[in-house]
Structures are given as structure tokens and as C-alpha cells.
Design goal:
The chain has 17 helices and 13 strands. Helices cover 39% and strands 13% of the residues. The chain has a single domain (15-427), classed as Aldolase class I (TIM Barrel, Alpha-Beta Barrel), CATH 3.20.20.70. An eight-stranded parallel barrel has the order 3-4-6-9-10-11-12-13, surrounded by six helices. The protein has a two-stranded antiparallel sheet with strand order 1-2. Strands 7-8 form a two-stranded parallel sheet. It has helices at residues 15-19, 53-63, 96-106, 156-176, 190-195, 210-213, 215-227, 250-263, 284-287, 292-296, 302-309, 325-333, 344-348, 352-358, 374-379, 381-395, 406-427, and strands spanning 23-24, 30-31, 35-37, 69-76, 88-89, 112-118, 133-134, 152-153, 180-185, 233-239, 267-271, 316-319, 339-342. It is globular and about 55 Å long. It has 429 residues and is an alpha/beta fold. Helix 2 (53-63) packs across helix 16.
């Protein structure tokens, strides 16, 4: 079992003292406090998927804002398998100089900066890639089929190639100076698809039993470890559950986490949901099912983290729902988690962590974004897109726009994505 190198937090600490405590990961890496920026897709790369100075400016603001750990948005391991236009893709050393500038900006102020590595699988907008791929040819539910294609089932050699790509991307990130990598195993992307019996209907060594369905992520983890040094942190973001009928369950998630803990993973981030059931965004579908006590204490997935803590001692990061200093401190005091995952509060205020660590009670103005169009609002896509627009404003040195009209923002996003998808296909033609 992987042992965290941290004693229990003293009960006498006040909120600021508690949140300011450093944490040492199993590989010896020290995170200066208990606040971590969870990955949010920036979509600030060039059309041919290269990092831009906008990423440097954005992460310089975040590293100056007091957060102990920053995890980048989706960095794709295959340029031919993007999750959205303007993703960074990390396949070779062509952008090493730009990556190093990104690291310099994002690791200032004694901040740990990790890459989040991802492959979208079938969760890719229609027309963006030449084909959508998945563990099995399982379509999205009906309301999503106008946005996403039915995938082609991955062949054995393609699966092995993707595993190698994760390891190559991690090694390149380490060369650039990033201090860790996170495997994106949540929110309905490819690793999550392999784990889910709903999406993975294979009858070979990659599907069927949970042992087979988790083979993909275990081999990715092992391949990254082989390609990187012992001081390079390797973590994973995982769903507590998919919240879908026939999907990945909490019991299965706990089993996978125990397996990865035994292999020596440095950190597990707990989240949940997919685009079809977007618990990660706090969508009404999830909130209507959550217990009142869960909503009151902010952390959507803390109850599951408590179950995990009873089985493993690897450091746990819980993301989803944190809005106030008190809510974060209360969650840490349970002993079920070690790091507070923040996303949208940092999209609205890059100095939110510094405020939490120095001021009195602080609360983020994060809210759920609705267009009034039920189909769009139920999917949670509008929420993700609206906050992505605020991130872009931060990168451009602008202030956020809390009054931005969601419907107008949606129209702009759809128009922009349509243009970028066409440009992306031309660049790769």
C-alpha cells in the first residue's frame, strides 16, 4: 500500500493555518499548501496545437495567486485525437522552448505545475477529428448524438500506441520542467470509457471484467513511470462514479484506486460524471440526487472520499463544489482528503487562493450558468463553455465578465468552434 508521508493535521489549527499546511507526496515532492487548481480546458493553443504566450500569461497570474499546485487543462497525447479546437498536443519536442516558458510562468512563487494528459476517445465534437474512437462502438445517448459521432472500436495496436503516447508526452513534460503529470481518467474521456462497462463492451483482454477494463489505465501508469524520474509526480483524476445506468460504479472506482495505490501513484483526484451525466459541473441532475448534508458542506464527492480513505492512504484531492474558506477547512478536518481541488473559483479570480489564505471568510461568486434551453443546460456544456470564456479573458489580461449573457456566449462559442473545426481540418489536410 502506498503510504502518504504526512501526519494527521492538528485539530488546533484555525482555517488559514490548516489550509496553509504543506503536504509531502509519496515521491517526496512538497506542495506548499492544501489548495490545488484542478484542470480546466483553456483552448489557448494555436490551430496546429502549439502552446501560445496566452498560456504563459494565464499561468503567471495563477502562480502569483497563492495556489500550491496548478494542473493544466487537457494536453492531448495525439494531435489527430483532439478534444476540442486549440488544445495543446504534446507528441514530440517541437515546442520545447514554448513549454519551458510556460513552466517558468506557472511554477513561479514555489508552485508545483503538472500537465494533465488526455485522449478524448469518442467524446469529441463532430467534424473535429477524422474519426472518433472508443473501446467499443457505443453511441452517445440520443440527446447527445447531434454533437458526437458513434465511435469506431479501437484495434489492439491502436490501444498500445495510445499507451506509448501517454508515456512519451509525460517524458517530454518532464524534460520541459513540469514537476508532474495527471492522467485524465474522469469525465467520460478515453480512460474513463475503458473503465465503464457501459462504454466498454469488448470481449478481449481490454474489456469485460473490471480487471480487464482497468488494464488500460494500469498500463498507461506503468509506461509513464518507466519513462520518467522518481521525483516526477504521477497522479490520476478519476470518477467516483459515472452516474449513468450500467456505468462505472463507486465500488469499481474504489477497486481501481486501491490497485493504483498499490502500484505507487502519488495522488488521486476524485471527481465524477460525464458529459451525459455532468456531476462535475454541479448540474441540477446531480444536485437533485445529492443529500442535503453533502450540498451544505460544499464538497460533492467527500462522502466517497471518506470510503476511499478507509481503504488507502495515498493523498486524495477532492474537486467539485468548494466555494468558501470554511467549507474547504471543514472538509480537510474530516481527514478524508488532503488537497482542496479548485476550478471555477480560480477562473473568476486568479487570486482566490491568496485571499482564502490571508483574509477572513471568503466565498467565491461561482454559479451555475443556464441558457434557458433545457437540452443544453442538462448537459452541463454551457457551464463549461461560459467559464472557459472567463479563462480566456484572464489570459488576455482582462477582468472577468460575470454579466455575460449565457445564450449570447453560447452562440459565440458555437460559431467560433465551427470556424476552428474547419480550420483544424484544413491544417491537417
Amino acid at each position: 500500500m502506498n503510504k502518504a508521508a504526512n501526519p494527521a493535521l492538528p485539530s488546533t489549527l484555525n482555517n488559514v493555518e490548516l489550509l496553509s499546511q504543506p503536504i509531502t507526496l509519496p515521491n517526496g515532492q512538497v506542495i506548499k499548501n492544501r489548495l490545488a487548481k484542478s484542470a480546466m480546458s483553456e483552448a489557448l493553443a494555436t490551430i496546429d496545437n502549439r502552446p501560445t504566450p496566452l498560456l504563459d500569461k494565464l499561468y503567471k497570474r495563477w502562480s502569483a495567486g497563492g495556489t500550491g499546485l496548478l494542473i493544466t487543462g487537457n494536453i492531448m497525447v495525439d494531435r489527430k485525437a483532439l478534444g476540442e479546437p486549440n488544445n495543446v498536443a504534446l507528441e514530440n519536442d517541437r515546442d520545447m522552448a514554448a513549454l519551458k516558458r510556460w513552466v517558468e510562468a506557472g511554477s513561479a512563487n514555489n508552485t508545483q505545475l503538472w500537465v494533465q494528459l488526455n485522449h478524448p476517445g469518442k467524446q469529441v465534437p463532430k467534424g473535429l477529428n477524422s474519426r472518433a474512437l472508443g473501446p467499443s462502438a457505443v453511441p452517445f445517448d440520443k440527446k447527445m448524438q447531434s454533437f458526437f459521432e458513434t465511435p469506431q472500436e479501437l484495434a489492439e495496436d491502436e490501444i498500445k500506441d495510445i499507451i506509448k503516447r501517454f508515456a512519451t508526452s509525460a517524458a517530454l513534460a518532464e524534460e520541459a520542467g513540469f514537476s508532474g503529470a495527471q492522467i485524465h481518467g474522469a469525465h467520460g474521456y478515453l480512460v474513463s470509457q475503458f473503465l465503464s462497462p457501459h462504454h466498454n463492451r469488448r470481449e478481449d483482454q481490454w474489456g469485460g471484467s473490471l480487471e480487464n477494463r482497468m488494464r488500460f489505465v494500469k498500463e498507461i501508469y506503468s509506461a509513464i513511470r518507466e519513462k520518467t524520474g522518481s521525483d516526477f509526480a504521477v497522479s490520476i483524476k478519476m470518477n467516483s462514479a459515472d452516474f449513468q445506468k450500467g456505468g462505472f460504479t463507486e465500488e469499481e472506482s474504489l477497486t481501481v484506486m486501491k490497485e493504483l495505490s498499490g502500484l505507487g501513484i502519488d495522488l488521486i483526484e476524485v471527481s465524477g460524471g460525464t458529459y451525459e451525466a455532468p456531476a462535475m459541473s454541479g448540474a441540477e441532475r446531480y444536485k437533485s440526487k445529492a443529500k442535503e448534508s453533502t450540498l451544505k458542506r460544499e464538497a460533492y464527492f467527500l462522502s466517497f472520499a471518506e470510503k476511499v480513505r478507509g481503504e488507502i492512504s495515498v493523498p486524495l484531492m477532492v474537486t467539485g463544489g468548494f466555494r468558501s474558506q470554511q467549507g474547504m477547512a471543514d472538509a480537510l478536518r474530516t481527514g478524508a482528503m488532503d488537497l482542496v481541488g479548485l476550478a471555477r473559483p480560480l477562473a473568476l479570480n486568479p487570486e482566490f487562493s491568496a485571499n482564502v489564505l490571508t483574509e477572513g471568510e471568503v466565498e467565491s461568486p461561482v454559479k451555475q450558468i443556464k441558457t434557458g434551453i433545457k437540452m443544453i443546460d442538462d448537459m452541463g456544456m454551457m457551464d463549461v463553455a461560459w467559464y472557459a470564456r472567463q479563462i480566456k479573458r484572464l489570459a488576455q489580461g482582462k477582468s472577468i465578465n460575470l454579466r455575460e449573457n449565457p445564450l449570447l456566449a453560447l452562440i459565440k462559442i458555437m460559431a467560433s468552434n465551427g470556424i476552428q473545426i474547419v480550420r483544424n481540418r484544413r491544417v491537417r489536410a
